Amino acid sequence: MDDVKIDIVEEIRRKTNIVDIIGNYISLNKSGKNYVCICPFHDDSNPSMFVSPDKQIYKCFSCGAGGNVFNFVMDYEHISFKEALKLLGDKVGIDTKINTVIKKKNNPIFECYEIITKFYENSLFTNKGRDALKYLNDRNITDEVIKEFRIGFSPNEDVVTKMLVSKDFSYDILIDMGITVKSDYGYKDFFFNRIMFPICDYDNKVVACSGRIFNGEVTSKYINTKETSYFKKGNLLYNYYKAREYALKDKYVIITEGFFDVIRCHIAGFKSVVATMGTAFTSEHVKHLKKLSTNIILLFDGDSAGEKATYSCGNILMKNGITPKVVRLPDNYDPDEYIIKYGAESFKKVMDNPISFIEFKLNYLKNNRDITKIQDLSNYVNDVIVELNEMQDQVMRDITIDKISLDLGIDKSIITSRLNKSPTKLKENVISSSVHIKNKYDKASYKLLYYMLNDIDIILMYQNRNVMFSNNLYRNLANEILYFYKNYGTISSASLITKLEDKKELIDLVLDIESMNYQEKYNREELDDCIEILKMETIEKEINRLNDLLKQELDITKKAEILNKIVELKKREL
Known about the structure:
alpha+beta; 5-stranded mixed β-sheet; DNA Primase, Chain A; DNA primase DNAg catalytic core, N-terminal domain; Dna Topoisomerase Vi A Subunit, Chain: A, domain 2; 5 domains
């Protein structure tokens, strides 16, 4: 930061609201005067990060991530301070005069996919793509939507491979990507006569393509380019990048199974929607969804396969601390088919009335069972008991027991006698400080440093009364606060964190201190007591040092001198 003027840095920080910036990346929920959220920097299942609009800082009490707006952008985007400064400067209209480009993935594969995607997009609007375009338009997918989702068409001829080879892409790379296949007749395109969907990573880079039949051919409905280190269906979610913008505002995410389901929901006004692309739902998917919202709605196909997928997906979400809601469509419809047949208004009514995943599970476990028969009833109750024993929420557990007892007409004791004595305690969605103050000296130090970080008068008091912290870390932070005040005539934690740069121990200490629940306005008597405690700590440590020295000293005269010093210090303790 040496060649970047501090006044530009501070101006950008002051004009940037940390809540707005973090809120663009992950979903925030108001909690008192602060905001809480799922931490994006570790595998978080309950909100463990707080964001303070007053202090302009954030802190995760689980993994320890924290800092000001620059720290968040650097860690989330994996960029340098200068790059974060330029990014935020551009947002608030301040020219940092830093000539740098935010580093993104630089690989010929990304260039290749971008070329392919543009080619397919253009092909759809040529004479060769006429039938495919008509198919899409007949399904009420307008040209505007087609362009928004970059839908394309692969013509029924070998043109893509030849085009890419002419641009110096090797056959080996194209084969590894799944764009080209080698046959007895040479190198051929993999995609023929299909509607093409680009698949993007979480940075909106095209990393794969998927082709869909549209003319009734008896062949695989969808085929994809090969999985690579950049494209794994068990990791990516279709439409994630677009959905992010809407999910942060809507406070929910809908999960569907396919491309057309996403696009149809988008057209119907439900834009915070993603798809699993017909693959199994994984914990990796959950990790990325948590960055958007923990309010998840499962909207899979209405058939038995969709029901099974809902059950599997919901269980994975539950294991990762999310209890989803479920919408089941009638008559085996998928979302695309349902909206086409019944319209957006009818779909909205269905979406406004989801059921809890617990209720869905109870119905699912009852499938293909005749509970009027003793064996089926017994098997069903045993399955329900397994689910109840895994349930973390005591209230939900009790409600479920009451419902099962009422629905089946059996005594609650039959169920409760088979349950664990107490369910796994549900983590409270309450953020509390991770700081464990060991003794009265730490407590006094934290309180004094807290008010030094928040009030110039206390900085002056610290300076005038020659307060001494015996702990090196506390003393270093106090000196940094004093230095900052002398240079800039003010103090704020967010500004100080920027100045501290890579002094992680001190930054962590600032964040820990600011997370303490002290009164906003200091009490002078309490601070006087803190100063006295710190003075006593200094004296006590000096007495301990002298006692150790006394044990080692053999000279009688020097022993007497040490004893006199100890006596004098003990008098000051009284």
